[in-house]
Amino acid sequence: MRWNHLAEDPTPAAGAVNPALFGTSAVTTRTFDTPEFRGITFHEVRARSIVNRVPGASRMPFEWTVNPYRGCSHACVYCFARKTHGYLDLDTGIGFDSQIVVKVNAPELLRRELSSRQWRGAHIAMGTNVDCYQRAEGRYRLMPGIIDALREHANPFSVLTKGTLILRDLDALRRAADVTDVGISVSVGFLDAELWRTVEPGTPAPERRLDVVRALTARGLGCGVLMAPVIPFLGDRPEQLRATVRAIAEAGAVSVTPLVLHLRPGAREWFMAWLARHHPGLVPRYERMYASGSYAPTWYQRRITRQVHELAAEYGIGPAGRGASRRIAPPQRPVPAPEAAPSGPTQLTLL
């Protein structure tokens, strides 16, 4: 596997044109024969960098991300991040779901990078590549240290998740919100139980995710919902959209932002294989809809967005602003702004 690029102390062979992504000496592989981790292999690595720049072509309203994991046991068949597993010479299908790279030094590395004179204190987004509250986090507990590091530097951040484990860190999030700008969003694209079981088999049920919204709201942490993905022909009927938006409103979400399914290379092949197994009659319709690329036609995206926003207004919530959720306003604290931001590996983003 190509490990060296993300190793803390890479030592590529002399003259290597395409060095590995981690040095093998930096990797410890563990498999746990317990119900919650059965069939999952963890590759524990000491990463070289943790704050990653978002590609310039991204539509996201932030420039930097932190991702303590690669691969995701949520096993969402549409996950755009599947292709990134190929960079490690790992399988982008089952391998993405079951071969999880854990950056065990993420909290200490983040503290070091935030302390750099080059860091400007920009907003950092988490959960935009793979979920930082997937099952692995229950064992490795990297997020409390990451949140504390961000709080110590009063660095604004946001978290997007499908996981209920975020509730474990409510106190840490609340402390961070006292000193900086914190945004939290939960992803709920639909309520259909049968669709959920097949398309997002490793995630908590949509109702449990809405319970997370309720719990965060009760603690004074405003939470938005990314209504994603809206899946054409399976989750986009008017009555389905209405039921989902109504449930989001009843959970107390401060915003709802729809996102139509997009199928990038890597995810596209895996999703289409799933579609052929579960809904073979839809394959020709998808081939036509996504014939021009990764995104559904603009007219379709606009239709879904309009419908969801109209329903949101009806139920008393609105679209999310910058960062995909309402921020908790922090006390005014100056952040040093040195000359340049740190360089780092490019990281894919949600949009």
Notes on the protein architecture:
The chain is α/β, with parallel strands linked by helices and 351 residues long. The chain has helices at residues 82-85, 94-98, 106-114, 136-140, 143-152, 170-177, 193-199, 206-218, 238-250, 267-278, 283-289, 298-314, and strands at 3-4, 21-22, 27-31, 41-45, 51-53, 64-66, 69-70, 99-103, 124-126, 157-161, 182-187, 223-230, 255-260, 327-328. The strands form 3 sheets. Strands 5, 6, 9, 10, 11, 12, 13 and 14 form an 8-stranded mixed β-sheet that branches. Strand 10 (157-161), helix 6 (170-177) and strand 11 form a beta-alpha-beta unit. Helix 3 (106-114) runs parallel beside helix 5, helix 5 (143-152) packs parallel to helix 6 (170-177) and helix 9 (238-250) packs across helix 12. The longest helix has 17 residues, at 298-314.
Keyword list:
351 residues, 4-stranded mixed beta sheet, alpha/beta, disordered C terminus, 8-stranded mixed beta sheet, single chain
User: Hey, roughly how much beta strand do the residues contain?
Assistant: 15-25%
Shape call = globular
Helix content: 25-40%
Rg over alpha carbons: 20 Å
- Which sheet architecture does the biggest sheet show? 8 strands, mixed
Mean pLDDT across every amino acid position:
85
Please sum up the structure shown.
31% of the residues lie in helices and 16% in strands.
Blueprint of the fold:
Layout: E1 3-4, E2 21-22, E3 27-31, E4 41-45, E5 51-53, E6 64-66, E7 69-70, H1 82-85, H2 94-98, E8 99-103, H3 106-114, E9 124-126, H4 136-140, H5 143-152, E10 157-161, H6 170-177, E11 182-187, H7 193-199, H8 206-218, E12 223-230, H9 238-250, E13 255-260, H10 267-278, H11 283-289, H12 298-314, E14 327-328
Parallel strand pairs: 4-8, 6-9, 9-10, 10-11, 11-12, 12-13
Antiparallel strand pairs: 1-2, 3-4, 5-6, 7-8, 11-14
Helix pairs in contact: 3-5, 5-6, 9-12
